[in-house]
Amino acid sequence: DQPGNSEAGHMNIGAGRIVEQDSVAIEKEMNSGKFFKNPAFEAAYDHVVKHKSDLHLMGLLSNGNSPHSDPEHLLALLVWARLKKVKNIYLHLFTDGRDSSPHGSLKMIEALMRNLRNQETARSRNGEWIATIAGRFYSMDRKKSWDRTKLTYDAIVMGRGVYAKSPQEAITQSYNRNETDEFIRPYVIKRKGKAIARIKDNDAVIFYNLRSDRARQLAKPFVQDEFEKMNQGGFKRPKKLKNLLFVAMTDFGPDLGNSITAYPSADIKNTLPMAIDGRKQLYIAEKEKYAHITYFINGGYADPVAGEDRIMILSPDVRSYDQKPEMSIYKITDRVLSELPKYDFIAINFAIPDMVAHTGNIQAAVKSVEHIDLCLAELSRSILALGGTLIITSDHGNADKMLDLETGEMYTEHTDTLVPFILVEKGNKHRLRRGKLGDVAPTILKLMGIKQPSEMTGEPLF
């Protein structure tokens, strides 16, 4: 009953079946009690006991509709910490404003703090738990805007940033500067002139975000020994943490060697790229959605699985995509048009209706859809001229609702609207039925005359 999201949508499209999401698996273990005995969490506990150090929980504070985190997971971790009698625990919270109301974090913080006080779910040296606050614009960047990541790292590790006496004061100050939750600058909460807490040598961290695409970039300076060498254009860490035990809630992907995964990804076999093996195939998107058209659509594999080609077009370097609502769609379209004759199958992600709608700017979202229309028209003409078929679909709604009619506030979240599936072909030969995202890959295979793998339980849409 939740709105769709890009990770789940692309995984289901590529897998050709219903893929159980990490959040569902975690919820099952919370209900059974197995969550509270997770070996990764136990390792974090053993580490802080051995070194008499602090435990830090880091992640997005959002409502229950976000694909990036679930507030119930944070509360469960706090209950676990109480059960284990963790001596010192601190929170580093990222405010949302994209998958939740642009001004919703103040109520979320207050609700969390009431829970902490009432349930005594955690303890700290000073009776304070929330050490830093940062908007996801800074803390969850995924396009290698390392200056944003550095500001977050500096706040969490060095205690440097904008200062406030409480999380509420930090958020209120930000609202007074007309900064919505997404854009709250990294704040350090201070008491008596000192940061409440910062991550230090020998500490343990649990990064409780669910999706890898917006967690990897921040995780890297914490876990990569040679971070500066491995990330061109990155930043020099003011402090390289020693003997840090870092737990990722889910699989955040490769090159994060010094980390432990609490819930590793399931092995998804015979996805769409694997089924098309032997044919020439291309997957293309701009930077913002490159992971989705590659890593997620092929079942969570970082590298090509069937010799498929991949092309990433850089996204524009702007603070907010309503400033450039076409983003890089014309560069993608031009590249696809030049590549069309070479390939049997091409998968394209056009990021703009999602990314621009997240800004809440209705006029810019309208322009983004107009750009989509122009590019789809050009692509359809060229594809039909080559005797091909064009499929137009989406993995979730967003631009279809941009105003909350009850509050009058801009609506930046995903929606639960059903998405279209449009088949553009000569002669309109096929009559489509209603289906699910897991039916897309079987439909593609049927169009291409390729046998559907037994692991794909979806059904063709005609």
TrEMBL record:
<keyword id="KW-0479">Metal-binding</keyword>
<feature type="binding site">
    <location>
        <begin position="211"/>
        <end position="214"/>
    </location>
    <ligand>
        <name>substrate</name>
    </ligand>
</feature>
<protein>
    <recommendedName>
        <fullName>2,3-bisphosphoglycerate-independent phosphoglycerate mutase</fullName>
        <ecNumber>5.4.2.12</ecNumber>
    </recommendedName>
</protein>
<keyword id="KW-0324">Glycolysis</keyword>
<dbReference type="InterPro" id="IPR017850">
    <property type="entry name" value="Alkaline_phosphatase_core_sf"/>
</dbReference>
<feature type="binding site">
    <location>
        <position position="396"/>
    </location>
    <ligand>
        <name>Mn(2+) 2</name>
    </ligand>
</feature>
<feature type="binding site">
    <location>
        <position position="414"/>
    </location>
    <ligand>
        <name>Mn(2+) 1</name>
    </ligand>
</feature>
<dbReference type="GO" id="GO:0006007">
    <property type="term" value="P:glucose catabolic process"/>
</dbReference>
<feature type="domain" description="BPG-independent PGAM N-terminal">
    <location>
        <begin position="26"/>
        <end position="252"/>
    </location>
</feature>
<dbReference type="InterPro" id="IPR011258">
    <property type="entry name" value="BPG-indep_PGM_N"/>
</dbReference>
<feature type="binding site">
    <location>
        <begin position="98"/>
        <end position="99"/>
    </location>
    <ligand>
        <name>substrate</name>
    </ligand>
</feature>
<dbReference type="InterPro" id="IPR006124">
    <property type="entry name" value="Metalloenzyme"/>
</dbReference>
<feature type="active site" description="Phosphoserine intermediate">
    <location>
        <position position="6"/>
    </location>
</feature>
<dbReference type="Pfam" id="PF01676">
    <property type="entry name" value="Metalloenzyme"/>
</dbReference>
<dbReference type="GO" id="GO:0006096">
    <property type="term" value="P:glycolytic process"/>
</dbReference>
<dbReference type="GO" id="GO:0004619">
    <property type="term" value="F:phosphoglycerate mutase activity"/>
</dbReference>
<feature type="binding site">
    <location>
        <position position="395"/>
    </location>
    <ligand>
        <name>Mn(2+) 2</name>
    </ligand>
</feature>
<keyword id="KW-0464">Manganese</keyword>
<feature type="binding site">
    <location>
        <position position="68"/>
    </location>
    <ligand>
        <name>substrate</name>
    </ligand>
</feature>
<dbReference type="InterPro" id="IPR036646">
    <property type="entry name" value="PGAM_B_sf"/>
</dbReference>
<feature type="binding site">
    <location>
        <position position="358"/>
    </location>
    <ligand>
        <name>Mn(2+) 1</name>
    </ligand>
</feature>
<comment type="similarity">
    <text>Belongs to the BPG-independent phosphoglycerate mutase family.</text>
</comment>
<feature type="domain" description="Metalloenzyme">
    <location>
        <begin position="1"/>
        <end position="451"/>
    </location>
</feature>
<dbReference type="GO" id="GO:0005737">
    <property type="term" value="C:cytoplasm"/>
</dbReference>
<dbReference type="GO" id="GO:0030145">
    <property type="term" value="F:manganese ion binding"/>
</dbReference>
<feature type="binding site">
    <location>
        <position position="354"/>
    </location>
    <ligand>
        <name>Mn(2+) 1</name>
    </ligand>
</feature>
<feature type="binding site">
    <location>
        <position position="289"/>
    </location>
    <ligand>
        <name>substrate</name>
    </ligand>
</feature>
<feature type="binding site">
    <location>
        <position position="6"/>
    </location>
    <ligand>
        <name>Mn(2+) 2</name>
    </ligand>
</feature>
<comment type="pathway">
    <text>Carbohydrate degradation; glycolysis; pyruvate from D-glyceraldehyde 3-phosphate: step 3/5.</text>
</comment>
<comment type="function">
    <text>Catalyzes the interconversion of 2-phosphoglycerate and 3-phosphoglycerate.</text>
</comment>
<feature type="binding site">
    <location>
        <position position="136"/>
    </location>
    <ligand>
        <name>substrate</name>
    </ligand>
</feature>
<keyword id="KW-0413">Isomerase</keyword>
<dbReference type="InterPro" id="IPR005995">
    <property type="entry name" value="Pgm_bpd_ind"/>
</dbReference>
<dbReference type="Pfam" id="PF06415">
    <property type="entry name" value="iPGM_N"/>
</dbReference>
<feature type="binding site">
    <location>
        <position position="142"/>
    </location>
    <ligand>
        <name>substrate</name>
    </ligand>
</feature>
